[in-house]
Amino acid sequence: MVPRQEFLNPTVLDPGSRKTKTGYFWVLARDDRAWNGSVPPGVAFTFAPGRGGIHAERILQGFSGSLQVDGYAGYNRLIAPDRIGPDIRLAYCWAHARRKLVEITRNGSAPVAEDGVKRIGELYRIEAELRGLDPQARLA
């Protein structure tokens, strides 16, 4: 299972202050259908007053496994060496990395960025070939 986390920024009432404040809906999604997973897809929404790693840690309390994330540094708290709790592995999203590399290549000649875009394209090709295969075949 690889939950994917996203943020939505609602404005909510701030009880007792007669004002509103911005908070964050943390959205965790699971969809293993692309690799014939046995669990049904699902989405969970939870609210937190911020986007800090402390909220990710609270929301994912008890979770173990891989978590697909963007490059946001707040997730580093989940893999800190001194963290107590189940093992979490961060799986960074290629789309976020690729987007940055594409931006760099659009602003001029950048051979390293161009090479990165090509390599990510090759990974996408490999992933497309593996999609739908069982876990043992994908691992091989």
TrEMBL record:
<feature type="domain" description="Transposase IS66 central">
    <location>
        <begin position="12"/>
        <end position="139"/>
    </location>
</feature>
<dbReference type="InterPro" id="IPR004291">
    <property type="entry name" value="Transposase_IS66_central"/>
</dbReference>
<protein>
    <recommendedName>
        <fullName>Transposase IS66 central domain-containing protein</fullName>
    </recommendedName>
</protein>
<dbReference type="InterPro" id="IPR052344">
    <property type="entry name" value="Transposase-related"/>
</dbReference>
<dbReference type="Pfam" id="PF03050">
    <property type="entry name" value="DDE_Tnp_IS66"/>
</dbReference>
